[in-house]
């Protein structure tokens, strides 16, 4: 998050000496919400921060414990004071230990099992998201953290999904769908976002009679198969487009409004960028489906229904 407001909330709280437990609880909550301490019992938060609404809850809690609490709106008197307030929210000290742990974890990932990798990535993701949520004024430390996190997740992905494609350059050639009917299509097994969405796109819009083979390694691709979403495949990442978007462009489907919205969602989940509102929900559905269906054919059939519904929904939405 990045805020520019010059309006602030000051949270002033005082509790009886006997309410030590409540004092500690409120202090921890204030810290978790990203407030900066001005002095003992006085905290500052950007007024536009989403956490600001929680301060009233903490004020009410302090009153219930027999204390006193005030929420005051503060305006920076000039640019110098504004800069001084913002400096209180420098998260360099929060990122530093996490970055050190991430560097140590990077040295271990090649020796971990798939389950251990997932646990390690989830743990570091939780810490990173907690810091990002209170990084109201991102600066150099947040840029460094983002780069290190992207490198780490790419390294984990390279271990979990060997053969993840690298983008090619040039121009996407237009293809005649009639020349691609009843074909054998191949991609890496253990389908994830771009691969499952691309297989669905092929099945629904390009080659209704498509047959699929799921590869342990890209090198196992049969000579007569049309490969997708791996290096050297007929259809893979191209420029800034993921495989789903490349298939759309190749077969003249990029004018379909529903597919455009799906493409934006797949792009955000696969390589990052502007997240769509539906992205996290689809990612959760797919993660759950992978647990239910270890077989990729069953996974495609199940998730294909979800993509059918999303496409129908997106196709009827009005343009903003």
Plain-language structure description:
The protein has 320 residues and is of the alpha/beta class. Helices cover 51% and strands 12% of the residues. It contains 11 helices and 7 strands. It has helices at 20-32, 52-64, 79-87, 92-106, 114-133, 140-160, 193-206, 243-250, 257-271, 279-292, 296-316, and strands at 7-14, 36-39, 42-46, 68-75, 184-188, 211-215, 226-227. The strands form 2 sheets. Strands 2-3-1-4 form a 4-stranded antiparallel β-sheet, covered by helices on one side. Strands 6-5-7 form a 3-stranded parallel β-sheet, with no helix packed on it. Strand 5 (184-188), helix 7 and strand 6 (211-215) form a beta-alpha-beta unit. Helix 4 runs parallel beside helix 6, helix 5 packs antiparallel against helix 6 (140-160) and helix 10 (279-292) packs antiparallel against helix 11. The protein is elongated. The two termini are 23 Å apart. The model has no long low-confidence stretch (mean pLDDT 88).
How are the SSEs placed, and which strands pair?
Elements: E1 7-14, H1 20-32, E2 36-39, E3 42-46, H2 52-64, E4 68-75, H3 79-87, H4 92-106, H5 114-133, H6 140-160, E5 184-188, H7 193-206, E6 211-215, E7 226-227, H8 243-250, H9 257-271, H10 279-292, H11 296-316
Parallel strand pairs: 5-6, 5-7
Antiparallel strand pairs: 1-3, 1-4, 2-3
Order of adjacent strands in the largest pleated sheet: 2-3-1-4
Give the biggest sheet: 4 strands, antiparallel
Q: What characteristic shape results from the CA principal axes?
A: elongated
Query: Average pLDDT, to the nearest integer?
Result: 88
Low-confidence segments: none
């Amino acid at each position: 998050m990045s805020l520019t407001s010059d309006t602030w909330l000051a949270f002033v709280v005082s509790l009886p000496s006997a309410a030590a437990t409540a004092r500690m609880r409120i202090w921890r909550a204030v810290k978790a919400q990203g407030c900066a301490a001005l002095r003992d019992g006085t905290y500052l938060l950007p007024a536009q921060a989403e956490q600001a609404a929680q301060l009233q809850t903490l004020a009410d809690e302090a009153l219930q414990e027999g204390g006193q609490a005030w929420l005051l709106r503060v305006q920076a008197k000039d640019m110098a004071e504004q800069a001084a307030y913002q400096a209180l929210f420098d998260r360099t000290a929060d990122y530093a230990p996490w970055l050190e742990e991430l560097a140590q974890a990077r040295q271990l990932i090649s020796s971990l099992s798939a389950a251990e990798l997932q646990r390690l990535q989830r743990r570091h993701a939780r810490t990173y998201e907690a810091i990002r949520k209170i990084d109201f004024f991102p600066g150099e430390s947040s840029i460094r953290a983002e780069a290190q996190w992207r490198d780490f997740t790419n390294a984990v992905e390279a271990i979990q999904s060997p053969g993840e494609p690298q983008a090619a350059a040039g121009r996407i050639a237009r293809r005649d769908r009639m020349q691609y009917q009843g074909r054998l299509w191949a991609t890496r097994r253990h389908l994830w976002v771009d691969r499952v969405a691309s297989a669905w796109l092929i099945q629904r819009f390009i080659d209704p009679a498509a047959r699929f083979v799921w590869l342990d390694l890209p090198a196992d691709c049969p000579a007569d198969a049309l490969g997708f979403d791996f290096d050297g495949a007929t259809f893979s990442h191209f420029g800034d487009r993921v495989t789903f978007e490349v298939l759309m462009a190749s077969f003249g489907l990029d004018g379909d409004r529903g597919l455009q919205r799906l493409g934006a969602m797949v792009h955000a989940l696969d390589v990052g960028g502007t997240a769509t509102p539906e992205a996290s929900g689809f990612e959760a559905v797919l993660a759950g489906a992978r647990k239910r269906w270890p077989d990729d054919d069953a996974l495609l059939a199940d998730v294909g229904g979800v993509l059918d519904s999303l496409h129908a929904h997106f196709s009827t939405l009005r343009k903003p």
